[in-house]
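Worked example 4.2. Below are the chains of a multi-component assembly; read each line carefully before continuing.
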Amino acid sequence: MTIADKNELRHPPYDQASGFGWLLAELRDHLWPWAGKGQPARKAIQGAGFALALAATVAWVMAALGHLSAGAIIGWWFGWSVFEVLVRLDAKPYVKEGPWWGHLYRRASVMDMLCYVSFKNLLIGAALFIGLKSAGILQL
Amino acid sequence: MKALRLLSAIAGRLALCATLLQPAASQADTYEVKLPPELATAPRMCDYAPCKDVIPGATTFSERKGQPWYVEAYKDEAGQKKLLGYVMLSTDITDIPAYSGKPVVTLIGMDTAGKFTGVKILKHSEPILLLGIPESALVKFNNQYLGKFVGDNIEIGKSRPEENLIGLDAITGATVTVIAQNQVMMTSGSEVAKQVGILKPVNRPQARFPVSTATPSWADLVADGSVQRLTVKPEEVGLKSDGRPYMDLWFGYLNQPTIGHAILGKDGYDSLMGRLKEGEHAIFIVANNSMDSFKGSGFVRGGLYDRVQVRQDKDGFTFRDLDYVNLWGISAAGAPAFNESAIFIIRGKSFSAAYPWKLVFLGNKIDKETAAKTFANFDREYWLADKYLEGGRPVVVKPDPTWLKVWKDKVVEIIAFTALLLVIAAAYASRDKLVRRADRKNKWPVNAFKYTGWVLSIGFVGFYAMAQPSITQVLTWFHSLLFQWKWELFLSDPLIFIFWIFIIVTVFVWGRGLFCGWLCPFGSLSELLYKIGQAVGLKRFQFHLPQALHDKLKWVKYAVFFGLLAVSFFSMGLAEQLAEVEPFKTTFLVGLFNRSWPYTLFAGGLLGLSIFTERPFCKYLCPLGAALAMPTTFRWFGLKRKDECTSCKACAKGCGSLAIDTKGNIDQRECMLCLDCMVLYYDDHACPPLAQERKRRDKAGQPLTPINGKGYFIPIHPAPANTKKEGAAA
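Applying the procedure described above to all two chains together yields the following structure tokens:
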């Protein structure tokens, strides 16, 4: 473990889960940035986050319907990603330490969260983008 | 809007700075130049292009003619016009893209004997020729064609007289560009040479068809490949979708009796065959619900159907109005509805249905930004199934794709490079064993591998193979992922391709340090200079920045990376120019002394600074390092730490990467995996907690047990008295 200071380690509510349940909880954690049971969060950030997530979802749906250009959807996705960093730093301020199949988590610095959200959303965005493009809905 | 304007202004300023810093750019006078729009379409092409430059002595030129287009060049001789040769514009003939994904627009001259007389680049979009390699290198490359016959077997690489192959010297560092340019030259030249009779068509044995009474349905014909489909999406020609394909063609070969009967019915087939002379062939094409017509504006261009043609190997077959027969309906059960149809007759004697051929749709791609049209073609292969040919399909050896040829040519380098990567990866995977054999004073068990990696990466990977990964590749990938992914583009540089697979895998397994710290040619050169400086007595001048300052400056590289990424969305060309912040091209591709002074000063300055401080470029500027550092956050296997590391600063003091924070945690994004801290981790004379325990045991007369995986001596526990055994023995 690269962490010397054990105070840096964190324990999300689901870190004791195992097997399929733990995998599902991990998936939910990646896709749902807001605080869950046992996780504190400021209501204002949470509320604004919901609003922006709704707007980003609408943007993707519009893209899927062919009403939004590629540039606009990239802009929206980028904007949402910036906000997701703030939401997660407030609600889920931890990232995985070690292999993805491990159960170790550490406190997330701003840079950790930036890296996590940007990389995760790049993968999600690329999958949606390629999906829409393959379906011939999104044009570049 | 304000933000956009601001960004645009910043990009403009950056472009200005880049231009001021780049005298070489001024030499690149055909990079992305605006060509007159008439050049692509005007009948008198030579009014808009310097045709005289590519066919010396020519005084007059004809209008565009033929399919594909070319121009005849004449000189006046005693008041008579004498045909000197031909001039062709590459983009009239082929849309082969170069490294940038765009074609190099080339004007080519050829005499009546089929020898190239001149080549002139009118426009290119190759970033490497803008910044790294002077454009004159491409001119010099093109001059190698002068005097060579268009029918010769000309390829990039060494000549092989035993195979009748003429080799051309490539441009080091621009392999993909010259491979594409060779294809452009040979395709353009041979297309025109065939039209004017310089190259004779290949005579292929004609197909013979078995007798059959079967009447396949449309679905059967589609399933066995007797009917093929060629679809072009609107976005492929730069148009907005309205839900329909731009072109949706079904086509097939009609001379084969079983297929012909199925499509035309017996009467229709007999009637058509009655019209055909020996050696003539008929194909049908139908289209439905397409945005455009496949017959197009055929009669404007001298009676030619200019949107469809048949190609067999290097032979092309076009259709005139006399080659057209109406197709009123399709007999095969289950045939789709159609609103446009045709039967075309192939009259070229070299065509044979026994061999594969392609239906080619010739389109124009409209650039969304400039509205300029560029030539683009789309094709679909057709080959009669075994059962429709007497004796089955003949054996056809298809030429290797270009990227495969490159891989075959570089097989030795590929094996050597792959071996290097595997050995270094294996050495790093065995780090626990290596660091246990090393100690603070003798790190050779680790350094032997690391230094070997450095030397080979500098000499072999960097200077010889020029396989230095770069941020421009990351930007290209990013854009390809979003816009158009072409495997061929990435496969055309095998060492870079293999390197990136290695980098991606190792970044997720161990972090960026294995590449950056052990195998990056520039990083290796940088640290090697630092070590040499240390060895030659410059140690007293060597320094690390204070940790606080380092902690601020390390963010600069991320800003550089995100800046380049943002700019690339506005202008990939500008991003490529700004990517000169990487001194890689200057150091390895072009050479420190082959570039203008600002580049040399920048790269030389960084390397000079590297003698006195460890890896300044890698730590503070490298956008590639930043791009790799981000996923390193999630590397699977990190280095080890002990609880005592929170208060002990021994490793942190010796960390050249300044990657250990005040709490003793390693910042994996900054760590170059030099393994110095891991050597200390197991060294009972250097690691304070271990040394303390060693001294304590020495004093107590206790044995020194082996050090376990957690970096501590295996504890000594008094063996419990085995009462049971003793009892039994008694």
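Take a moment to check your reading of the output against the notes. The CA atoms of residues 45 and 87 of chain A lie 6 Å apart. The first strand of chain A starts at residue 9 and ends at 10.
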